[in-house]
Structure formats: structure tokens, C-alpha cells
């Protein structure tokens, strides 16, 4: 059996919008299920996302959900997502899209360890790390 590690992101009522945005960045197939679809159709959370999963053709998996009523939500403090590799064009494209409307903490540029690296907090409060392994000079 295969094991995988992937981030699970929590949102405060805008999980569908966020997951659709990430699908526009990374492509792939997005499945979204609400609390109402799983028996909570009389709940104030019925239209909130209980579970969303984005599977991409590049092997990325991203999961997310809205917090239910009464749960606390503190954006950006408990999750960072790292995207790394050596596909310069693709990773720069991801960075460009993620940085739109974001707070850029570290611009995407060559770092002392030799890679291009950038860090931003996107418009949904999620911190992203993009690391592009560059060929040795």
C-alpha cells in the first residue's frame, strides 16, 4: 500500500472558492462535498465544504474544508505548503499565480543554497513555499 503526505487546509466559509482557485493554479480533478451531502442538510453548515480533494496529473494532492460552526479558525498559522522540484517553467507559473493578490514574504529569486525560492501568503491566508532546484553552474 502506498502512503502519501499532503496538506489539509481549513477555511472559514470559502473553501470551495479557495479549492477552485488552487485547481486553476495546478490543474487536476477537484471533488467537493458539503456537510449537507453527508446528512447535515438541516445544519447551518449544510452548504459549507466538509471535504474537498484536488488530485493533479503531476502527483499533487491538496485537501481542504470549511471549519464548522463553533470551531475556531486562525488563517495561516498552522499550515505551510511547499511545492518544489526542478521544472523551472511550471514552478515559476505556479508562483506567478499564487502570488497574485498575495503578501509576498520572500520574492522568488536565487538563494544562497543555489535554488530559486519564494514565500508568500496567498489571498486566502495560506503560506506557500516555492523552491526551484536549479542546475549547477
From TrEMBL:
<protein>
    <recommendedName>
        <fullName>PhnB-like domain-containing protein</fullName>
    </recommendedName>
</protein>
<dbReference type="InterPro" id="IPR028973">
    <property type="entry name" value="PhnB-like"/>
</dbReference>
<dbReference type="Pfam" id="PF06983">
    <property type="entry name" value="3-dmu-9_3-mt"/>
</dbReference>
<dbReference type="InterPro" id="IPR029068">
    <property type="entry name" value="Glyas_Bleomycin-R_OHBP_Dase"/>
</dbReference>
<feature type="domain" description="PhnB-like">
    <location>
        <begin position="5"/>
        <end position="129"/>
    </location>
</feature>
Amino acid at each position: 500500500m502506498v502512503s502519501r503526505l499532503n496538506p489539509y487546509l481549513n477555511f472559514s466559509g470559502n473553501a470551495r472558492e479557495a479549492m477552485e482557485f488552487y485547481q486553476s493554479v495546478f490543474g487536476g480533478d477537484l471533488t467537493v462535498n458539503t456537510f449537507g451531502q453527508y446528512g447535515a442538510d438541516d445544519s447551518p453548515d449544510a452548504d459549507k465544504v466538509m471535504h474537498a480533494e484536488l488530485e493533479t496529473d503531476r502527483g499533487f494532492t491538496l485537501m481542504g474544508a470549511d471549519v464548522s460552526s463553533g470551531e475556531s479558525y486562525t488563517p495561516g498559522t498552522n499550515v505551510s505548503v511547499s511545492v518544489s522540484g526542478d521544472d523551472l517553467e511550471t514552478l515559476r507559473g505556479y508562483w506567478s499565480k499564487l502570488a497574485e493578490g498575495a503578501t509576498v514574504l520572500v520574492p522568488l529569486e536565487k538563494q544562497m543554497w543555489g535554488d530559486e525560492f519564494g514565500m508568500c501568503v496567498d489571498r486566502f491566508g495560506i503560506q506557500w513555499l516555492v523552491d526551484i532546484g536549479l542546475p549547477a553552474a
